[in-house]
Design goal:
With 473 residues, the protein is an alpha/beta fold. The protein contains 15 helices and 20 strands.
Length: 473
């Protein structure tokens, strides 16, 4: 129906005009919104990229979590301050074996030894032709590390005395190389392995000194200088004096306590360097360890039993000239290798020898691991059996005698589920939050957590990152 106004204007036409006006308004507003969106995109595109946080990982070899979760006797104000303002683990369940090199590799890959390829400290060398070689070389790691992943993500990196880093992809590298001796001439080998070439010469030219052998304070001097000079976004530092003092005098000896307090002082030096650079608000400081410690008294040498059973023969110089079964010591545990792993008859013979050893309580065997057990734990895939020792007992690789006094008063390498073997974790920084205790965590979670902070990608099979509190604004 068409209606007219008093002056004869059709209202229908008014409706049509109003509708068209609304459509025009709709398109105008949409265009305005589009322009605003494009302007926002342009602003984001033109804005400088957000700087990634700095991450400094300091490993105190052999540090037990009870040092910072319980009061005294060690005076560790730096660790306690970092923990109180950040987060810490009541314990870190490590890998099998709980030794330095496989653990440190897990700390930067997020996977167990069976995946990353560093199965123990020393390589398997039954013929003893390597001169006691360790897994020194980064080329033996089969998966991406935090160093390589950070480089891919475009971040600068550094590593000072970190295990398994000879020729590692770090921009600034002073690798750990345990095959050298105390004579100062061997310092030249470490100089040759640094990267870039001449790094330690530049360090000395800046008024510093490179003594030999170097201790925790010496390596931290290098690390703080590298941070002040080059400001890498990811730095790895390994301190080892605590482990040394816990092995020989024992884990509760006064010398071990002094080493722990000195390690705390070295951590403070790095914190002070970060503060002096004005980067504290942008820096995550992560203090870790590779394993715990416990006292040792007796040492079991299963290769003696293999020799008695005709499974191993040695020459007149004590070198192995034939073997069907060989025991590779890993401290508080160890692994049995077979020359013919698929030989069921040989497996049966070796199993009987191991069961007979375990049947005598004097030998100190806690558990015999099957190959299936080892696979579940992510241990050396070449091993067919494994042995975990009772408290107070250690293992040795030599061929005689069966039992002897342990060469040190403290050790590790035992099953990682044992509380005494738990490692440490203290975290503080903008990505951590003041979350307090994280409970007991897995060592494989640490590298994925750090990778998430710097936008780096580890191996597909790496563990999940830790569930941390909300980051600081």
């Amino acid at each position: 129906m068409v209606m007219l106004t008093p002056d004869g204007v059709k209202l229908e036409g008014v409706r049509v005009n109003a509708h068209r006006t609304g459509v025009r308004r709709h398109y105008v507003m949409s265009f305005v919104r589009l322009l605003a969106a494009l302007a926002m995109v342009a602003m984001v595109a033109c804005a400088p990229p957000q700087e990634p946080p700095y991450v400094i990982v300091i490993s105190i070899d052999g540090l037990k979590p009870s040092v910072y979760t319980q009061p005294g006797p060690a005076k560790i104000p730096t660790l306690r301050s970092l923990a109180s303002g950040g987060a810490w683990a009541d314990g870190v369940i490590g890998v099998t074996p709980t030794n330095t090199y496989p653990s440190h590799t897990t700390l930067i890959t997020g996977v167990p030894p069976a995946v990353h390829g560093i199965f123990d400290n020393r390589i398997l060398d039954i013929d003893d032709t390597s001169g006691g070689s360790w897994y020194w070389y980064a080329r033996d790691i089969k998966v991406p590390t935090l160093l390589s992943a950070a480089n891919v993500a475009g971040h600068s990196t550094a590593a000072v005395n970190w295990p398994v880093t000879v020729d590692a992809p770090a921009d600034y590298l002073v690798p750990e190389f345990g095959g050298v001796y105390a004579h100062p001439i061997w310092a030249n080998l470490v100089r040759a392995l640094t990267h870039p070439i001449g790094l330690l010469d530049t360090y000395e030219a800046a008024g510093n000194r490179v003594p030999w052998p170097m201790n925790d304070a010496d390596y931290m001097s290098v690390a703080t200088w590298v941070f002040r000079t080059y400001r890498p976004h990811l730095m790895l530092v390994h301190l080892f004096d605590v482990d040394d003092r816990e092995h020989v005098p024992g884990p509760d000896a006064p010398e071990a306590l002094a080493a722990i307090e000195n390690a705390d002082a070295q951590v403070k030096r790095m914190v002070d360097a970060v503060d002096a650079a004005g980067l504290r608000s942008r820096t995550n400081i992560v203090v870790v360890s590779d394993h715990g410690f416990q006292a040792t008294e007796q040492e079991l040498r299963p290769n003696f039993a293999f020799k008695e059973a005709g499974l191993l023969e040695e020459d007149d110089y004590g070198r192995i000239r034939r073997w069907d079964a060989y025991f590779q010591t890993a401290g508080g545990s160890g692994f049995v290798m077979l020359s013919r792993p698929d030989d069921e008859l040989l497996r049966g013979r070796v199993a009987k020898v191991l069961n007979d050893l375990a049947a005598n309580p004097a030998n100190g065997i806690e558990t015999i691991w099957t190959q299936s057990d080892l696979q579940t734990m992510g241990a050396d895939p070449r091993a067919v059996f494994g042995i975990d020792m009772k408290d107070g007992f250690y293992t040795g690789a030599w061929h005689e005698p069966l039992l002897t006094r342990a060469g040190s008063r403290g050790g590790h390498g035992f099953a990682p589920t044992r509380t005494a073997m738990h490692a440490s974790l203290v975290m503080n920084g903008p990505n951590v939050g003041a979350g307090g205790s994280l409970g007991v965590v897995r060592m494989t979670q640490i590298a994925p957590t750090i990778a998430s902070w710097i936008g780096a990608s580890l191996a597909q099979g790496a563990d999940a990152a830790l569930a941390l509190p909300a980051a600081r604004p």
